[in-house]
Amino acid sequence: MDLRVTSANLAEVTARVRAAGSDRTIVRELEREINAAARPIRPEVRANVRAELPASGGLGEWVARSAARVKGIRGPRVAGVHLSWSRRSLAGASNLNAIDRGRVRHPLFGRRPGRWYNQPVPPKSISSVVKRHKPAFERAVVDAVNTAMRKVGLS
Predict the structure, then answer these.
(1) Span 136-149, mean pLDDT?
(2) Sign of CA dihedral 141, 146, 151, 154
(3) CB 131 within 8 A of CB 121
(4) Range scoring the smallest mean pLDDT among 3-7, 20-24, 38-42
(5) Can you give the pTM of this predicted structure?
(6) How far is the C-alpha of 54 from the C-alpha of 51, rounded, in Å?
(7) pLDDT range class, residue 59, cuts 50, 70, 90
(8) Which pLDDT score, from 0 to 100, does residue 71 have?
(9) Which of 33, 46, 47, 131 has its CA 20 to 30 A from that of 1?
(10) CB 100 within 8 A of CB 123
(11) Cβ distance 99 to 57 under 8 Å?
């Protein structure tokens, strides 16, 4: 369900920009291009989830309203991008990975508290769409990194 793109070049670009001074416009442009690459994935995942997961009880709509985040990964030797889906519920973080694997755990309505049940749902409702977009997303991230490398003189 998560999508990661890592690159040693991205770490080098950010280190070079940091060493050059406080001009963060290159980093902001890089982040903007990466976010733009992730933008078409979100509505398609939401539409797929609404179509595949059960509408009764509101599960499909509940999962479709989950947040998609694009987060930069920065380390000393490698950097990258992580696209993730998460949802907070009343009891804390919800397990969207289990839902994507095909299992929902829920209390039975109207029964005694503390009784939870597993319900099978169609698997891969999120990850199938993300997997379809992975090559285009990776190309867009590599293009954005290459553009930033040219701007800081690393090409």
Answers:
(1) 83
(2) positive
(3) no
(4) 20-24
(5) 0.75
(6) 8
(7) confident
(8) 76
(9) 33
(10) yes
(11) no
Express the helix, strand and coil content of the chain in percent, nearest 5 each.
50, 25, 25
Identify the burial level of 55 via C-beta atoms within 10 angstroms of its C-beta, where 0-12 means exposed, 13-18 middle and 19 or more buried: exposed
C-alpha angle 50/54/56, rounded to 5°? Answer: 110
Residue with tokens 């993300």: 130
Amino acid at 22: S
Two structure tokens written together for 149: 């490398």
Q: From CA 1, how far away is CA 123, in angstroms rounded?
A: 11
pLDDT digits (tens, 9 = 90+) for 13-30: 667 766 765 467 877 887
Q: How far apart are CA 69 and CA 84, in angstroms?
A: 5
CA distances in angstroms from 115 to 94, 105, 108, 125, listed in the order given: 18, 10, 7, 26
The CA-to-CA distance between both ends of the chain, in Å, stands at 33
